[in-house]
Amino acid sequence: MSLLKLDHVTKRFEGLVAVNDISMEIQKNRIHALIGPNGAGKTTIFNLITGIYKFEGDIFFDDILLNTLKPHQVIEHGIARTFQNIRLFQNMTAEENVMVGYHCRTKADVLNILYNPKRYHDEKVQSYKKCAELLDYFHLIDKKDEMSVSLPYGHQRLLEIARAIATNPRLLLLDEPAAGMNTEEKAELLTTIKNIVRDFDMTILMIEHDMELIMNISDRITVLNFGCKIAEGIPAAIQNDKSVVEAYLGVEDE
Amino acid sequence: MIKSKKKFNLVRLVGVLIIIYTIPFFFPNAYIAQIANLIGIYMLMAMSLNLLTGFTGQLSLGHAAFFGVGAYTSAIVSKSFGLPFLICLLIAVTVTTITGLLLAIPALKVRGTYLVLVTIAYGEIVRLLMINWVSLTNGPNGIYSISPVSIFGYKFNDLTKSYYLVITVAFLIYLYIKLLMESRAGRAFLSIRDDASAAELCGVDITMYKIKAFAISAAISGVAGSLYAHMYRYISPSSFSATQSQLFLCMILIGGMGTLPGPVIGAVVLTILPEMLRFMQNGRMLVYGILILLVVIRSPGGIAKYLSVLIGKIKKYVHKIRHQRNEVSSS
Amino acid sequence: MVIIQQILNGLTMGSVYALLGVGVTVVYKSLGLMNVAHGDMMMIGAFITLLIIDLGVPLWLAIILGIFCAGMLGLAMERFIYRKVNYGIMLNLMIATIGMQIVLRNAALVLWGVEPKAFPDMFSKGVIHMGPYVVAVRSVWIIILALCLVLLLQLFYKKTRIGKEMTVAAANSTVASMLGINVNLTRFITFGIGSSFAALTGILIAPVYFVSQNMGAVVGVKALAAAVIGGFGNITGAFYGGIILGIVEALGGGLISSAYKDIISFAVMILVLYFKPYGLFAKHVDQKF
């Protein structure tokens, strides 16, 4: 039973077909990579899954149809994401950023904090505790009171992932998590992602351009070009697939 | 970024309470008492605007409209039906909150830059209604002889009594906002200010929270308006113009937008300043405008930020001196 | 037919809104900034011209000089104030324009007081009869001027090198600087153009509306409304938006009530924004929420 299923999904932007009749399935606890040249439609697919645009076709998460859900509802159902360009909350500390992630799993609100102060105080204490544990997991705990934008780049990327995990997802969408990292950081990221799958019972769908990282970590790869799926399979198969090579490097002149 | 202090500073709280409740003993005359009352009411308006604009990032240039709706509703209900003050207050708050929700509807759909426009237009519509709907509002002449604030028979009909009422209300609202901003809902507001689409993708229902921000902000303004009407006992459309909206914005900007003490500081400074600048009758607002430009260019955190940086430096300095002294005494 | 007469009346104010709306749009296209103070630039332009007239300068020369000075003022505002504000944070920039609005209005108050001042008429007071309908000569001039200026502006953006550079800078300032375009310069020029347009509009309406420190208040908001109705960043859209607003307002004022005329305009604007947040002429946007 697949965790995420795209069924003949198409997205048109006024004459431009960004995503063209894509069908794919992602199995639980797998690391599934989505690759392709720039403009192939990868981030658009993320946007479709997370409810930003209307589209044709169906997307199922477990048994739930995502088509008509608003973004925050998609998150509530258990899908979280990070962004290509880091989108942390700039006027908040690292800790506060992650605390926002707990929003959809807690209940304190504008009126009920007045008539049930004890309950929401407890909820707050609990959230801060879980937040500290999560930051600790990512080795960010000693930076928790620093403004998120003042953290080094690699830490910001990790923080974004931490914030996503705070929403307690079953599926994590990572949009180019290794962008801008050096070799060392990428190796650490590799380990971190594998640990996340193991420690949080997570399934991962990842957009990436770093081939080495992809080949090393993915259980399965889907290749897109111009909005169409051109190949899908295990890393070894994709590596040797002629159409994939062509898509990235162009056809050799005869 | 409102982090609750781990240690609840009782000393500071008591200190503040002592100051605000003993000030009336220093009122040399009725005129000063009048100003103190006005400061209290403007504090409420500034806090209301700060919640919507400073904390949730929804820039509003029409807050005088909420103020006016609250004031007029309370006055009209009081004069037409002779209802007791608390009922008038309740009705005023309800009506103002409804208008806040009405404003929220287009606001939800438009991005920041369009939003200001909608608020300006809204402010103008309300003002024009006040002037032209003469049968309801008595037009440009305003409404006279509004009954004074009276709670369960106790009349707040002198300036000192009304000051105590206003400052207590302001204090309670301040506490509520502090509680709110340190909670989950407060973080939701702040996340909307920083990056609304990212917030939504973190599970925050931004539509609902924008609506809540508008509603709470409008409700507080309704309270302020109602108090204003029954304290001054006379209201007219000229108190609720675009200039007034700009003044409220100036208060939070100069005091420190997006901070807790900012609106309070701003209200105090911008109510006292015109009295000190009496000689500059017309130039007053000009000075505010220039101040805004200066604040935006040099210190976007306003006076509150400036003060906190200053206090930080003083603390460091004191710490250094103490450290040096310890070194000297141990040698 | 009363309606047709109202429409003709509406065309005049509509052209005024169109001109102002186009000015606002020009600035928006370049900076991504909606200049709340645009109506007040108009007011200052009219005052400056009045000042020059009072110095004894002949009317037509004064008008040209006035527009030129207002343009210079706009350039100075960009160079010394707006540029210092962090262009990245839109909220700060908006606040800066609000601050500027307060400064402009109150500077005018301090310098020229509260009494509205008369402005010499540059058009004849005659009317033209088109069948049963009446149009003021002034109105015809204003409409023609508005059309010509907007066309000129379009040509400037599409055909001249600077115009094309400014369009690129507006779309994406990072890419533009990489292409060697001086983004600061384009912003600088934009403010000059926007301010000049505003001043011209102020001069056009001054004879009828008199010059006073808050003449820009209501008209300014309607200019913004025109730009918004037309779809932000769309010059032709702003032009049509202004005309439509003028006509709707005239019809509303004539058929419903002239006291509530302004309320009708603002309500229309809010309604348009509600149903079409990207303007009447914006392309179909299909976000889910």
Characterization of this structure:
The complex is a heterotrimer of chains A (254), B (331) and C (289). Helix content of chain A is 39%, strand content 24%. Chain A is of the alpha/beta class. In chain A, helix 3 (94-101) runs parallel beside helix 6 and helix 5 (117-137) crosses helix 6. By secondary structure, chain B is mainly α. Chain B is 76% helix and 1% strand. Chain B has helices at 10-22, 30-55, 63-81, 85-109, 112-132, 134-137, 159-181, 184-200, 206-232, 242-256, 262-276, 283-298, 302-330, and strands spanning 150-151, 154-155. Chain B has a two-stranded antiparallel sheet with strand order 1-2. In chain B, a hairpin with a 2-residue loop joins strand 1 (150-151) and strand 2. The longest helix of chain B is centred in the last third of the chain and has 29 residues, at 302-330. The radius of gyration of chain B is 21 Å and the shape is globular. Chain C has a single domain (2-275), classed as ABC transporter involved in vitamin B12 uptake, BtuC, CATH 1.10.3470. In chain C, a hairpin with a 2-residue loop joins strand 1 (127-130) and strand 2 (133-136). Chain C contains eleven helices and two strands; from the N terminus they run ααααββααααααα. At the B-C interface, helix 4, helix 5, helix 10 and helix 12 of B face helix 4, helix 9 and helix 11 of C.
**Order of adjacent strands in the largest pleated sheet of chain B:** 1-2
Distance between the termini of chain A: 45 Å
Q: What Rg of chain A do the Cα atoms give?
A: 19 Å
Q: Let me know the number of strands of chain A.
A: 10
Strand fraction of chain B: under 5%
Q: How are helices and strands ordered from N to C of chain A? A: EEEHEEHEHHHHEHEHEEHH
Concise synopsis of the structure shown:
With 254 residues, chain A is of the alpha/beta class. Chain A has helices at 42-49, 71-77, 94-101, 112-115, 117-137, 153-166, 183-199, 211-217, 235-239, 242-249, and strands spanning 2-13, 16-27, 31-35, 56-61, 64-65, 79-81, 171-175, 203-207, 220-225, 228-233.
Blueprint (SSEs and pairs):
The complex is a heterotrimer of chains A (254), B (331) and C (289).
Chain A: E1 2-13, E2 16-27, E3 31-35, H1 42-49, E4 56-61, E5 64-65, H2 71-77, E6 79-81, H3 94-101, H4 112-115, H5 117-137, H6 153-166, E7 171-175, H7 183-199, E8 203-207, H8 211-217, E9 220-225, E10 228-233, H9 235-239, H10 242-249
Parallel strand pairs in A: 3-8, 3-9, 6-7, 7-8
Antiparallel strand pairs in A: 1-2, 1-4, 4-5, 9-10
Helix pairs in contact in A: 3-6, 5-6
Chain B: H1 10-22, H2 30-55, H3 63-81, H4 85-109, H5 112-132, H6 134-137, E1 150-151, E2 154-155, H7 159-181, H8 184-200, H9 206-232, H10 242-256, H11 262-276, H12 283-298, H13 302-330
Antiparallel strand pairs in B: 1-2
Helix pairs in contact in B: 2-7, 2-9, 2-10, 2-11, 3-4, 3-5, 3-9, 4-9, 8-9, 10-11, 10-12, 10-13
Chain C: H1 2-31, H2 38-54, H3 59-80, H4 90-112, E1 127-130, E2 133-136, H5 137-159, H6 161-171, H7 173-178, H8 183-209, H9 215-229, H10 235-255, H11 261-275
Antiparallel strand pairs in C: 1-2
Helix pairs in contact in C: 1-5, 1-6, 1-8, 1-9, 1-10, 2-3, 2-4, 2-8, 2-9, 3-8, 5-6, 6-8, 9-10, 9-11, 10-11
